[in-house]
Specification:
The structure is a single chain. The protein is of the alpha/beta class and 499 residues long. The protein folds into 3 domains: 16-162, no CATH class; 183-245; 246-496, Alpha/Beta hydrolase fold, catalytic domain (Rossmann fold). The chain contains 17 helices and 8 strands. The chain has helices at residues 16-22, 28-50, 52-57, 60-84, 90-119, 145-162, 174-186, 190-208, 214-223, 227-243, 296-304, 317-320, 324-340, 359-369, 404-411, 448-460, 483-496, and strands at 248-255, 258-265, 276-282, 308-312, 347-357, 388-392, 435-440, 465-470. Strands 1-2-4-3-5-6-7-8 form an 8-stranded mixed sheet, sandwiched between helices. Strand 7 (435-440), helix 16 (448-460) and strand 8 (465-470) form a beta-alpha-beta unit. Helix 4 (60-84) packs antiparallel against helix 5 (90-119), helix 5 runs parallel beside helix 6 (145-162) and helix 6 (145-162) packs across helix 7. It starts with 15 loop residues before the first helix and ends with a helix.
Length: 499
């Protein structure tokens, strides 16, 4: 489930510019060509991404006309360069031509998905793209960035169709399984197959973890002929496997055959006479990817201070084919589980801190704000509301008219407006626990205005809410340039609350 309303659109410009620069081509004419291409890139980005919804809402013939018109600007530029420089390296020009064509063909592949998103009209991939199948088994093209991106878009489109097969229902890691099953159907060259399987397995481990991929991992190690790929995957898998050792892993809920895990990092010398505060992390990832492993280090740090550090696995679009509603229910179940099992792990139920980044921040707020979405198996006598909420770059409004969530509700034949029931800015109320909100003014993923609206309205209700505005900061404030500042803000907030 691709998203453009919460996550910024990644503008994939023509990668052969990098290819040519890597060759260190010292040619003034080619440098001039690259400069002119960059100017085209900027005007293209301004027009195409500035009118994204409108363009993808167009009927197919108009959309193709738009794409081909944009494509022509690049091909004309390349043709002129070739004509003026007849002795220039033909292999570079060949790759440049392929790079341009696949960059624009990728938009055509994505047309059915985004057109349905914006118009609610189903379409299929245009037949003219069948001509590209002849390139699918050419490993030499793998060093062309837009070709690789085209293959990913192609497989994503077909994986959505593949996932309609009932065999994937209630199967974990659905997106990965569907994609790996499709690769042999469209590719026969072993080099290309190994590359694609390596990419998808490596990407899954990085962004979703190793849980329940043992058979896929072993199959890859046995059948991949590229030892460098095998060694990288084995090393990565082992690293992730080791990260899951040394702390408690419990199942906090079983739903649709999914055994959802809660990871607990306990103090080494736990004084049973003194209850411990607990911090619960919910990872980000637009409710589609992410893994508890990202918070293992933070959990251990708190455990070293005498806290109970906790991080929670919750259902995701790419793993279980879910929408954020299921994620919300899981977050509430996890807090309830901690209260229910507090005595076993020496937890002070008056000091449960919930923390999250991005979509994880949304889940933190949802545990305190959302009333209607509860798992049937939950014991409602336990409150899902934490005692403190800490949110970095959280999501406050999920009601974008063209959001993937609304599209998912339509596919379920459910009312699109249900999304309001899990959108914090539609759930303002009084009587909430202390809240820390940190947000950057230059957040391109989640508009700063939505965070400010939430804070202003919550304050009007008399809630205790502390708002830290990071001027010029983007979305990923919890690491990099702003990481230390964010960490200090959070620490001072907890100190003020005497945690």
């Amino acid at each position: 489930m691709k998203k453009i309303s919460i996550l910024t659109i990644c503008i994939v410009m023509f990668s052969l510019t990098n290819y040519a620069q890597e060759l260190k081509l010292n040619d003034s004419a080619f440098e001039k060509y690259l400069s002119e291409q960059e100017t085209l890139n900027q005007s293209f980005a301004k027009y195409f991404y500035g009118n994204f919804a409108q363009i993808y809402s167009s009927n197919e013939s108009k959309f193709i006309s738009i794409i081909d018109s944009l494509r022509q600007s690049y091909t004309i530029l390349l043709s002129r360069f070739e004509k003026e420089n007849p002795n220039f390296d033909k292999s570079v020009l060949f790759k440049e031509s392929k790079d341009i064509d696949y960059a624009f063909d990728k938009f055509l592949v994505e047309y059915p998905y985004y057109h349905e998103r914006f118009s609610d009209e189903k379409k299929t991939i245009n037949k003219r793209l069948d001509d590209n199948l002849k390139d699918f088994n050419n490993p030499e093209l793998l060093n062309i960035g837009s070709y690789v991106e085209y293959l990913k878009a192609f497989l994503y489109y077909h994986s959505k169709i593949e996932l309609e097969n009932d065999t994937y229902k209630k199967l974990d890691n659905q997106q990965l399984n569907a994609t790996l099953n499709l690769i042999p159907k469209y590719f026969s060259n072993k080099i290309v197959i190994d590359y694609l399987k390596f990419y998808y397995l490596n990407n899954h481990i990085e962004n979703l973890g190793i849980k329940n991929i043992d058979s896929l991992y072993k199959d890859f190690v046995i059948n991949c002929k590229d030892t460098s790929y095998v060694n990288k995957i084995k090393s990565f898998y082992t690293e992730e496997e080791n990260g899951r050792k040394g702390h408690l892993i419990k199942t906090y809920k079983t739903v649709d055959n999914y055994y959802l895990e809660i990871h607990l990092f306990l103090p080494e010398n736990d004084n049973q006479q003194k209850k411990r505060p607990v911090i619960v992390y919910f990872n980000g990832g637009s409710w589609s990817e992410g893994k508890p492993d990202w918070s293992f280090s933070a959990c251990q740090t708190f455990a070293n201070k005498g806290w109970v550090g906790v991080t929670v696995e919750y259902r995701l679009a790419y793993r279980q084919g879910t929408l954020p509603f299921e994620s919300v229910m899981d977050a509430k179940s996890a807090i309830r589980w901690l209260r229910q099992h507090a005595d076993e792990y020496n937890i002070d139920t008056n000091k449960i801190v919930a923390s999250g980044n991005s979509a994880g921040g949304h889940l933190v707020l949802a545990t305190a704000l959302v009333e209607n979405w509860n798992e049937k198996t939950d014991s409602l006598k336990y409150s899902p509301v934490p005692n403190v909420l800490m949110v970095n770059s959280g999501v406050y409004d999920l009601t974008d008219d063209n959001s993937w969530i609304r599209q998912g509700l339509r596919n379920r034949n459910q009312d699109e407006n249900l999304v309001k029931e899990i959108s914090p800015n539609y759930l303002i109320k009084k009587g909430l626990p202390p809240i820390l909100i940190i947000h950057g003014t230059n957040d391109k993923n989640v508009p700063f205005s939505t965070a400010k609206e939430f804070v202003d309205r919550m304050k009007l209700e008399g809630n205790e809410i502390e708002f830290h505005v990071l001027e010029g900061a983007g979305h990923f404030i919890w690491w990099g340039q702003y990481g230390k500042q964010v960490s200090e803000i959070r620490s001072k907030f907890l100190e003020k609350l005497e945690y």
